[in-house]
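Memo to structure team: turn this sequence into structure tokens by end of day. - J.P.
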Amino acid sequence: MSEKIFKINKPFPPAGDQPEAISRLLKGLEQGMQKQTLLGATGTGKTFTMANVIAEYNKPTLVIAHNKTLAAQLAQEFREFFPDSAVHYFVSYYDYYQPEAYMPVSDTYIEKDAQINKEIDRLRHATTQALLTRKDVIIVASVSCIYGLGSPEEYEKVNLKLNIGMKMDRMTLMKKLIEIHFSRTNADLTPGTFRSIGSKVEFMPVSETIMYQVEMLGGKISKITKIEPISSQIIKEEENIFIFPAKHFITEDVKKKKALVSIKKELDAQLKKFEKEGKLLEAERIKRRTSYDLAMLKEIGYCNGVENYSRHLSGKKEGEPPETLLSYFPKTGFLTIIDESHVTLPQLGGMYAGDASRKKTLVDYGFRLPSAKDNRPLKYEEFTERIGPVIYTSATPSEQERTESAQIVEQIIRPTGLVDPETIIRPVGEKGSYGGQIKDFITEAENTIKRGFRVLATTLTKKMAEDLSTYLKDKKIKAEYLHSDIKTMDRIKILTQFRKGDFDVLVGVNLLREGLDLPEVALIGILDADKEGFLRSETSLIQTIGRAARNSEGKVILYADILTGSMERALGETKRRRDIQIAYNKKHGITPKTILKKIKDITEELESEHGKAVNAELNLDLEVFKRAYAKELKDNKPKVSKKDGVTEVKLIMSDQERTNLVYEKIIKIKEKEMSKAVKELDFETAAILRDEIGVLRERMDRDGSK
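Reply from structure team:
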């Protein structure tokens, strides 16, 4: 028997349907079943069941979620179950992403625009490095795991190993750091940067928030020190360290030279094709753009949209699938869990077609070479070829999971004895003394809040969610809305605040359906439940009803004037599960209890020490600048005026004005740095600085509105 790589922290033993589900799933894996489904009712502890399966199966595991918020929640839960293992979070590092596109109808070209989240980029590097260096790895990822990432072989090949006594001078070390895409700075270190101080070189690995100081003496490394960057406190002295590249896309000089030749060859072929077809505008366009990119690649090894040349730079053949996160998993095999599979599988299957259609238009009209089509996500069949055994988990598996799975394991009984919530149908419109869905919902919400519980409301549109939230606030009910326009980290914060009781009612569209763990919720109002469609389908209704299944007083009100087929089926399935659960509780003498779950801010777990350091330094800067202006305030005479016989005394500069002045000064400094980065064609740094300026402006606006 192989050595156990996972040590699971079990705060409680498996209960309810969990022991049977764990046993059947493990038996299925032992028998070589490639696909299985865990049909787990909401609140039955599917994550705990999967944690036990992971621990027993004893192989690295990939968990795929359909959105960043759910992925963050799952990552936090798995960290609690496996505190000694490498549990990592891998999602798209864009806070905002507008892909390059062309619309022939209106002759509109849309340039690629993106806002990179540095912290998520750091977490992505931590993920790949863990996969290459450890066995006890659990990666919680979004569908971004099927997008191109760079070759693991190239990434691993160029890592830099430093040890005491190694022949190395300062210039050589700096050169080697630049070769693996570290950038030099004279300012504070951030992940992926280094600086030189005398005979010492200091750097911060891209996956960490710890600083390393390397001292050279007599052409050799004499000392390697691990340092806490904020306090400059020495953590420990190291004998040796491994440094991975600061970027995932690594290309050797030899490959780069070959790539330049093959890109030029492809350009010549495409020009001939366009000229033959009489497409002179397209020919001129592709010639101009590609020639510029080739010059950039030759001179600095980078160009805007370099990913579109990934086939040439990697040496892959036409049509060959790209390297992805899956390539970093061990060849000996790993387990894949697809959470909320009824939503995640369509995403995995639909990514390629959308990307291919957009790329085809760009190629046809001379904006990109045909090889740009190979910068793509995996096709669904390519994805399935690259993974081993799969377990789908869902409360509402689709026909795909049901037909593909060798077995479907039901988990309906909850360890806490909780039953599916009571469901009630009430009219949408006013009728006699009945005031309609909004008035009725407000009355029910107020009663629920008085009992110390929280409330969810689901609407059909983002505008309705925002309007209802505003209306509830007017009625003195603390409410917020949640939808896809809100940034990832902000969504997580809103959910945490909701659980803590900072507000009582959360209004959403479809983000409130799958997987969100909110045991404080005792009431859900589904507005316009009879508007049949995606948001009011059988699956959506069952999922939404499930949000109230973690509370012993859970109740769901469906506001509808007619009983739709979806409503009938959803209510029927809820009743079936509820009857099974009540019968089980009666047989075993169980009294249902609300799940008590510690409220943790996931964003705190994901925030780096560097992020905290930036905030600490910013606060320090504010104080320094305020003190600098204190003398000016003291020297200046207050402004005295008389109005209507009343004497008014006003200080030259208020605290808020001084604070805003500091923000403006910091913003000006960063704008200068951004302009410099653009001139030096360092677009990645420029994008990051742009994001930082945005955060500072947001903070200035927020502080000013208080």
